[in-house]
Please model this.
Amino acid sequence: MLTVVVCVSGGGTNLQAVIDGIRKGIIRNTRIAGVISNNPGAYALKRAEEAGIPSFCVSPKDYKSREEYNKSFLKKMKELGPDLIVLAGFLVILPEEMTRFYKNRIINIHPSLIPSFCGTGFYGLKVHEAALARGVKITGATVHYVDEGTDTGEIIMQKAVEVKEGDTPQVLQRRVMEEAEWVILPQSIDRIAQKY
Ligand code: GAR
Model:
């Protein structure tokens, strides 16, 4: 069985898609050992609690230095012992020790078709603002492995989504989530779990 830890920062709709995916059998052979947020106010923590999943907040703001935060984050991760770490809207750059220790065992969901609208500064609503500003007619989402770079790791799955006349960043974000993110994140985890 694949043991997963999900890292979150905000609303947690992708976490919810993973929880529901396991319940519905879309994701097989998988359990969530814990959810880690950097943000104590993240609604994702409530979703974890409601699903009976142990949840933890490890925030850089609670540590004197980045090194101390990194150490504590890695310690908590090792305690939970994941086979796979899922970044589901996690907005903190991972410590290098973490990407090294969990090489090829961390995946991320990004709300565009990589290599478009990705890398430093492209997260959340900003991605959709940039897509609309550029006037693309197709966007989408990507699940990829995480390496030392930002959004540079091997691509696992992608799904395209149409941009529609009059879209606002919020409307487009919601469509990309519904039609792409909540579909390919569970499917990617299932695909990895089938190899366990
Ligand atoms: C999602 O759209 C996710 O793809 C994006 O943040 C949102 C989190 O929503 N992630 C990134 O932009 C990472 N670069 P959620 O908390 O409701 O899952």
Observations:
- The pocket of glycinamide ribonucleotide is lined by residues 8, 10-14, 44, 88-89, 109-111, 123-124, 127, 177, 181 (CB under 6 Å).
- Residues 5 and 85 are 5 Å apart (CA to CA).
- The longest helix spans residues 169-193.
- Helices lie at 13-24, 43-50, 66-80, 96-101, 125-134, 169-193.
